[in-house]
Amino acid sequence: MNRPGMNRTAAGIGFALITAVISGFAIFVNSYAVKEMTDAALFTTLKNGAAAVVLIGLALTVVRPVQVRTISRRSWLGVAVVGLIGGSVPFLLFFTGLAMASAPSAAFIHKTLFVWVALLAVPLLGERLGWIQLTALGGLLLGQLLITPPAGVSWGLGETMIAAATLFWAVEVVLARRLLADVPAPVLGVGRLGIGLVVLVGYLAVTGRLPLIAELTVTQWAWVALTGLILAGYVGSWLAALSRAPATVVTSVLVIGALITATLDALVRGTLPATAQLAGYGLIAVALLLLAGAVEWRPRRLAAQAG
Questions:
Q1: pLDDT digits (tens, 9 = 90+) for 209-223
Q2: Which residues, in sequence order, are CB contacts of 24 under 8 Å at separation 6+?
Q3: Which residues 6+ apart lie within 8 Å of 64 measured at CB?
Q4: What are the structural domain ranges in the chain?
Q5: 249 touches 291 (CB < 8 A)
Q6: Mean pLDDT rounded to a whole number for the chain
Q7: For 46-50, 148-152, 199-203, 214-218, which range has the lowest pLDDT when averaged over its residues?
Q8: In b/e form, how buried is each residue of 275-286, taking b as 16+ CB within 10 angstroms?
Q9: For the packed helices 185-206 and 40-62, what is the interaxial angle rounded to 10 degrees?
Q10: Rounded distance, CA 41 to CA 95, Å?
Q11: Cα separation of the two ends of the chain
Q12: Which long-range contacts (CB under 8 A, 24 or more apart) does 263-270 make?
């Protein structure tokens, strides 16, 4: 019946849903936190540092020493690469590009992450995309277009940097999916943020931003702690999802975070999204249900044929 495999995939989708909810809250909270900080790179570095501390505590609690000792040298190298292409360089590219790019361009480019992951996951991870999955991915993309119309989208250095950051994160997803077969998720999370933190601190030192830390207020440190805790939850649940479910599914489910952010924003503003945006959110929800159903249905069909 292949029940254990199906249960594992279902658990992965569950963790991905948790990650999406955290992501939705994170975007909403960060929109307020970044306004309280004097420098985006400084904020990113401190937030990642706070998250790394939380994940180190988690790893020390749940990971056995023997699990760490059995990690191969090749996998440790992979962890270091994840720290570079996932936890540091793309953050610098993204936030630097965000300062130069138009808002519609930045939003649209970043939200195409699931497309690039799908394109990479088929040849590199052996994931299969049938017509149901392709239809669902097309629905997700169309939903994104309705929510963030391409009108006003331009292209320049800022957009190029954001696109590069998105591609880095797509490659990271594929590499992390492979590494999780040998590296416990908490250890990979610590490596991602810890190694990334070293690079980010180096960037602050080179650009002369380190003295700004001494000027932070109590309120700013509170924002760092809150957003760092949220980031730790995001990374932990994201890796837990990625270790159990296909990369294409996990990154697609994360799109639902936009619905969470929109709901919170509507509650604060007291207004509803436009009709086209509501249609986009509905289309995303239907596409995700279709994708999740396809993931569950295929193993059941194969099990029935084998029986």
A1: 999 999 999 999 999
A2: 256, 257, 258, 259, 260, 261, 263, 264
A3: none
A4: 3-301
A5: yes
A6: 85
A7: 148-152
A8: eebeebbebbee
A9: 150
A10: 7
A11: 7
A12: 263/24, 264/24, 264/25, 264/28, 265/28
Q: Are 8 and 181 in contact (CB under 8 A)?
A: no
- Asked if pLDDT for residue 303 goes beyond 50, the answer is no
Residue type, 142: L
The Cα 88–Cα 153 span in angstroms is 26
- Six-digit token string for 254: 């994360």
* Torsion sign, CA atoms 216, 218, 220, 224: positive
- In this predicted structure, the answer to whether residue 143 has a pLDDT above a threshold of 60 is yes
- What are the C-alpha distances in Å from 241 to residues 116, 195, 248? 18, 22, 11
What is the pLDDT, as a whole number, of residue 274?
78
133: tokens are: 């999955």
Of 286, 235, 165, nearest to 18 by C-alpha is 235
